[in-house]
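Service request form, structural biology core

Requester: graduate student, group of Dr. S.
Request type: structure prediction, single chain
Budget code: on file
Notes: please return the result as structure tokens.

Sequence provided:
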Amino acid sequence: MASAKVGEIELEYERAGAGPPLLLIMGMSGTIAHWGAPFLDDLRGDFDTIVYNHRGVGASSRLDGPLTIAQLAEDAAGLLAALELDSAHVLGISMGGMVAQELALAHPEAIRSLALGCTYCGGEGSALTPEPVMTRLAEAMSSGDRERAIRASWEANVSPAFAADDEAYARFLQAGLSHAVAVPVIMRQLQAIVGHDSSGRLDEIAAPTLVVHGTDDEMVPVQNGTMIAGLISGSQLEIFDGVGHLFFWEEPERSAELIRAHATVHA
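Core staff response, request fulfilled:
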């Protein structure tokens, strides 16, 4: 792991692979480890991949005060600048997809191509996590049992069929145990998500855009992906049938190929 000075903070990042730069922006409560080796390893054959921990996560600087999606987008732009990259292909998932939207709006010159996975834009017609799912996650998180919280997160983030894959869960468990995110940080990330609304501005995004969503997404219902694709002119929508929120865990090869093909066409 390395660290980059971004304004007044430090961001922990990892860079590997060869090819054009690809910045990957993680979602709420996620860390560098939550991209999963199968997906990242596939991408690293064709891209100079850059993954990083948001402020308050891992070895990145502590989170002080409230948090906004726009602030996280400036962090992403600052990281590219710190790495002396004028632009990159960008993939954002979940909260990271919201960050990627704001990055594309505030810094269009930094975006070679844009991929938005399992994410949300706010506004009429959008939908955040259903209350029963949030209640289930909150109860597990407040139990004090780390493994129970990780298991609840796993079951909410993947389809029921994939949740039964013991080998995949073992990798997810290891990622959660080795890279824990503090509950107060998760709560501030959640507040930033609730305050996010780019719906009225998405038609300003000129970057070639790919939107990916799973039909069995419990965290961010699939209607959000359809809505975002409808608001960004010329965007490509890919729906994964029977797949949950973490589509790149359930379908790593297909996901990587979509990112690769999209970036290649718009190189």
